[in-house]
Amino acid sequence: MKKILFISAAILISLSGNAQKFGFGLKAGINLSGVNSSTTLQDYQTAALNGGLQGGLILEINPIKKIGFRTEALYSQKGYNIESDVNLNGTDAVINTSLTLNYIEVPLLLKLKLGPAYITAGPYLAYAVSGKDIATITVDGKKLAESQYADYGQIPSNDVFKDGEFNGDNITYKRTDAGVNIGLGVKLLMFFAEARYGTGLTNIKNTSSDDYMKNYTVSLSVGVLF
After folding, report:
1. What's the whole-model pTM score?
2. pLDDT in tens, 86-126
3. Buried-exposed string 201-211: b where 16+ CB fall within 10 A, e elsewhere
4. pLDDT tens, 28-37?
5. Which of 79, 132, 144, 165 could form a disulfide with 50 if both were Cys (CB 3.0 to 4.6 A apart)?
6. Among residues 70, 73, 63, 75, which one has the least CA distance to residue 30?
7. Which residue in 68, 94, 90 sits closest to 81, CA to CA?
8. Angstrom distances, CA of residue 110 to CA of 61, 62, 69, 202
9. Are strands 176-188 and 117-139 parallel, antiparallel or unpaired?
10. How many other C-beta atoms can be found within 10 angstroms of the C-beta atom of residue 19?
11. What's the structural domain count of the chain?
12. Which domain holds residue 90?
């Protein structure tokens, strides 16, 4: 009987220790994103960072007290806003273009714990499941109705992964993206809040020329880790 109790206690202690080494959780927050680009895009003015949503699942492994490893499966919206002064059929106009790419993103992060605070860093891989470009045209200070866009050879929105789209310019985008993240967070009990900066290392523009676009994103999120 004593042996059974001893073995049972040993198993419970072992399971408790392993539970402390593994964690899973949920997170949600916002992205503020833009693109680093070639000189072609720099001819335009960046109107504002593009706001989007992000969130998903977390798996964390903590082999030792101060160091851990985290992977995540996230839905993450990225893109940009640009504004350009153009001449459409002899009429001066301003076009504001908002691009949103909807990614499934998997970061692989090293986590360094500094008391309740922590630092994360590591690469990410992402795949865009969809993307949409929305154009707003302003003429003489007034926004055009969508029914008027055709008069200027434009379209109000389109799927950026279809050839011949993007307001007729035949610009397409790659679905894959890869880059690196670095972040800072704080954890209290089972809850955490963190800020993260990610920069893309690959060209998301599908072109044979030297033009390029690379994502960058500031992410703010909160979550729970069990």
Report:
1. 0.82
2. 777 777 888 888 889 999 999 999 999 999 999 999 999 99
3. ebbbbeeeeee
4. 999 999 988 8
5. 79
6. 75
7. 94
8. 10, 10, 5, 21
9. antiparallel
10. 10
11. 1
12. 22-225
